# Entry
Amino acid sequence: MSLRTYDDACGAARAMDVIGERWALLVVRELIFGPKRFRDLRDGLPKASQNVLSQRLRDLETSGVVTRVELGPPASTSAYALTERGRQLEPVLIALSRWGAHVPAPDDAEMSTDAFMLMLKALYRATGDQQSTLSVEIVVGADSFTVITKPDSIDIARAVKPDAQLTIHADTRTLCRLLFGEVSAEEAVKAGDAEVRDPRGLAQQFFQHFEKP
# Structure
């Protein structure tokens, strides 16, 4: 844990002693959907220096938020994962993402793939329509996620299911434009910014499930 402390008995202050350092909570964000190697964390947090990221990981390990794991075949390698205590921060991150989605971002600001997936969770609107379950594969570079929207919830996993009803290949900037209604799926495809496999015309339905900041 960092030597700096608020020295305050309030639970919120004690939580900030653990995750309040710069980049700490964003490290947790990058691990919400599963373990990552150090270099993958750097890809998701490109503006964090290697030394700072290493220090945050050490602090979070000491605090019991992050642990080291071994990823299996085909190439065994060490990685970082959230502990059960770390996973308890997901609702906090979702609430912050929902709140922050209404704060204007700089035009050149980048968003990691995991940050976008977290935002999908934050902005999802329950439909109550029992016919609204939809399985969507979202591919960003080498990263693939399956997003399943249900009448009252949304599930997101870093995995690909072969029976996805809709598949979208795009970068996060284009995905944000699709999400916020700045461009339609058809327009993004025509512009060469996205590839969409949508045999049932479900893309518009999918993006309508989310709040528009």
Summary: Residues 50-62 form the longest helix (13 residues). The chain has a mean pLDDT of 92. The beta strands are 66-71, 77-82, 134-140, 143-149, 154-157, 166-170, 194-197. The CA atoms of residues 16 and 26 lie 13 Å apart.
